Amino acid sequence: xxxxxxxxxxxxxxxxxxxxxxxRLAWTDSDRLAGLAEVRGRxxxxxxxxxxxxxxQVSHLENLIARLEPEPGQRMEQSxxxxxxxxxxxxxxxxxxxxxxxxxxxxxxLDGALEAALQVADLLPHQATDWDSVAxxxxxxxxxxxxxxxxxxxxxxxxxxxxxxxxxxxxxxxxGQGDKALEIWKKAVKIQPKFGxxxxxxxxxxxxxxxxxxxxxxxxxxxxxxxxxxxxLANLGRLCIRKGWYDDxxxxxxxxxxxxxxxxxxxxxxxxxxxxxxxxQEAAEQANLALRYNTTPWIALFQQGVxxxxxxxxxxxxxxxxxxxxxxxxxxxGHLNLASGLLNIxxxxxxxxxxxxxxxxxxxxxx
Length: 367
Description:
Blueprint: H1 3-6, H2 18-25, H3 28-42, H4 54-68, H5 74-89, H6 94-106, H7 110-123, H8 128-140, H9 144-157, H10 162-174, H11 178-191, H12 196-208, H13 212-224, H14 230-243, H15 246-259, H16 264-276, H17 280-293, H18 298-310, H19 314-327, H20 332-344, H21 348-361
Helix pairs in contact: 2-5, 3-4, 3-15, 5-6, 6-7, 7-8, 8-9, 8-10, 9-10, 10-11, 10-12, 11-12, 12-13, 14-15, 14-16, 15-16, 16-17, 18-19, 19-20, 20-21
């Protein structure tokens, strides 16, 4: 008898239901989009750039990426509906519950996301990262005190988890406890000296305290060590633009664009860097991509920014108001909301610059 038949199990495996399979496939195009964008980025490096048909390869990939871009809102709604149906058929499937929490977060349903995340944590009480997920939703709800309690639950299970430590530090920043956040980040880099995100956080807090030289030292460390999250890469890139460190800005923003190829704000930042470096053609290309990816009128972006601020999502609000003031540089309310958001994430110097713009735009009583 063949070996594979002799060792076959007595019973057939239990396959997931069709609803579960559908939920697992709901985001396949998003995964393909990220993969194609990564390939697109690699084509910009030698030896690919030396190939005779390099331009055709790039054009072909860009067409594929464009076809995979989801319709705004529609794909999210479909994915959410599929996932909710799957959860009804398998209410204790933690994979589906995690996906449901994520989808609800992205549609702004924080209470629904929290409910799903708490279900996962109850099913897997010894999984530190699930308590971290619960805590992160509380930070989005602008309830850092509750978030801190849940972050601590996660750390009790996994004391050396760098990301939970980072999230805990950010919750203390949200509470206005910068010194406490610095202590936690110092603990994180003691565990892993190459944890770039912690140095970025320390730099932002130190800068908000007016300690510019100390902040720059931390920023330089952040640039030295790897950072792999889109938000952190974009923030580092914008920081480098502000500091005039354009080579570093370009590197981090290019990496951010690989992870989020259709993010209009990142494309605009890249255009700014290329222009500052005197690379006008590439600046124009990035500006055109930003226009292509940003089909939302500025008033809608403004309203989304206000809503993100109300929901306790300061970083998302800042990104939206940055785009608003780029599209409407004479909109005083845009600069004012951007300044408030920057203060909330500890970027005091940028906030002051925006407040100064507001003061210059404000009418005076002088005759």
